[in-house]
């Protein structure tokens, strides 16, 4: 990609616009079949003003992992979420795939504050089930949003905080700061590191899990042995005096003394995090660039060779998807989509929040009409398009190109137009999945 990926700091996705939604009136009859396309007006080229308002997101390995901690308000993909409110996390059914019941995996988050006091800090979090079977089912379930309670495998949460809040300083964070967040936040699951650890291991009573499923997975991955060892060690330490129950560790020229319980629990926690890290997608920082800058700047292969793939390789991967399309409408739509993103093929996200915004749809079939987008479940107000996730992200997540591997054409995220201030800290928004 060109050396035009300029922004490397924590910038705001803010006040951005893309193009209008379909011009259908609210009286338009609701679509009943998933394969009904939107009006032909959607095929018209976007005007120059709209194009200039699109912000592209690219992934980059951070120079320092600390830059992705929550008090730096990062936009990031993969790894674990940097929860904005670290205490009042989503729980229960919200954390799991409604289809298979597995806890959802973190995809990405976008820091996108609004010009209102209650949303001075505002972050959107996207999670999904890693099962392609669930994603296929999800694509059908999303059409039920206006009529029934759908079973979803892709979920989006919005969290926002005022300027004065108990979690963050009123002063902007310093880039090179080594300070930790003001508050530690809720204890997280030792397996996934994502959701709140609401269940405790019945053996060691030390490790926490978000669900029984993750307790089982952790046990099968080695915790059962470590748990037994910890129980024996704790039993021995409780019957001995403090002089014989201390572990002495030399650290440089200093002698650090731990109780056996602290020693084993500390190492067990480290082991748990290591196990979890092997089951998460690679972690990246999301950096931003206006799409308009690519109208005259063509991609350059010399930048980001460690984290970005070549345009030719990306083009080959994208064009191979076209083999799956049989209808002329889908082929035409895909050709238009490919031409648009070819200037910046490594983009993993397209952001634009404005009145009348719409995604850049890869295919003509399976697109929602205005009537298919539900109202905000908290204030009953309209929802608007805010950003879409591109299939290129799968490459950076090292997802294999197998028959049953996770895949999508795009995931469009719609949020409450008013960014309402409901009492729920993490408000569930709406995602529309379009498969290739």
UniProtKB/TrEMBL annotation:
Transmembrane region(s): none
Protein name as catalogued: MYND-type domain-containing protein
InterPro entries found in the cross-reference section: PDCD2_C (IPR007320), Znf_MYND (IPR002893)
Record's keyword annotation contains Metal-binding: yes
Record organism: Malus baccata
Region annotation Disordered: where it falls in the sequence: 1-52
GO molecular function term, any single one: zinc ion binding
Taxonomic superkingdom: Eukaryota
Annotated Gene Ontology cellular component terms: cytoplasm
PROSITE patterns attached to this UniProt entry: ZF_MYND_1, ZF_MYND_2
Domain MYND-type: 189-227
Compositional bias segments (type: Acidic residues): 21-49
Keywords from the named record: Metal-binding, Zinc, Zinc-finger
């Amino acid at each position: 990609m060109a050396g035009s990926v300029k922004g490397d700091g924590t910038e705001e996705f803010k006040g951005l616009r893309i193009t209008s939604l379909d011009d259908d009136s609210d009286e338009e009859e609701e679509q009943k079949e998933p394969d009904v396309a939107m009006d032909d007006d959607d095929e018209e080229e976007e005007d120059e003003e709209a194009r200039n308002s699109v912000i592209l997101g690219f992934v980059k390995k951070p120079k320092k992992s600390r830059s992705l901690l929550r008090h730096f308000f990062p936009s990031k993909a993969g790894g674990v979420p940097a929860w904005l409110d670290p205490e009042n996390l989503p729980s229960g059914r919200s954390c799991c795939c409604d289809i298979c019941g597995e806890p959802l995996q973190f995809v990405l988050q976008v820091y996108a504050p609004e010009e209102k006091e209650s949303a001075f800090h505002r972050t959107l979090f996207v999670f999904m089930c890693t099962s392609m079977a669930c994603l296929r089912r999800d694509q059908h379930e999303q059409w039920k949003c206006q009529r029934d309670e759908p079973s979803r495998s892709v979920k989006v949460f919005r969290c926002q905080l005022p300027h004065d809040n108990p979690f963050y300083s009123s002063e902007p964070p310093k880039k090179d700061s080594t300070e930790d967040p003001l508050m530690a936040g809720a204890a997280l699951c030792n397996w996934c590191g994502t959701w709140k650890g609401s269940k405790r291991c019945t053996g060691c009573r030390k490790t926490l899990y978000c669900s029984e499923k993750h307790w089982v997975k952790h046990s099968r991955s080695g915790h059962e042995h470590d748990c037994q060892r910890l129980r024996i060690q704790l039993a021995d330490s409780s019957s001995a005096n403090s002089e014989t129950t201390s572990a002495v560790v030399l650290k440089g020229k200093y002698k650090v003394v731990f109780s056996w319980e602290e020693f084993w629990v500390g190492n067990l926690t480290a082991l748990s995090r290591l196990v979890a890290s092997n089951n998460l997608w690679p972690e990246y920082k999301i950096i931003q660039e206006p799409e308009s800058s690519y109208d005259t700047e063509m991609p350059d292969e010399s930048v980001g060779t460690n984290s970005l793939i070549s345009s030719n390789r990306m083009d080959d991967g994208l064009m191979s998807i076209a083999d799956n399309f049989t209808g002329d409408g889908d082929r035409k739509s895909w050709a238009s989509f490919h031409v648009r993103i070819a200037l910046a093929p490594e983009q993993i996200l397209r952001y634009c929040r404005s009145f009348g915004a719409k995604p850049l749809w890869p295919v003509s079939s399976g697109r929602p009409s205005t009537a298919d987008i539900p109202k905000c479940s908290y204030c009953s107000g309209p929802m608007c398009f805010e950003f879409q996730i591109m299939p290129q992200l799968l490459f950076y997540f090292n997802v294999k190109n197998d028959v049953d591997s996770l895949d999508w054409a795009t995931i469009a995220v719609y949020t409450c137009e008013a960014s309402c201030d409901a009492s729920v800290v993490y408000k569930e928004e709406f995602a529309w999945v379009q498969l290739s």
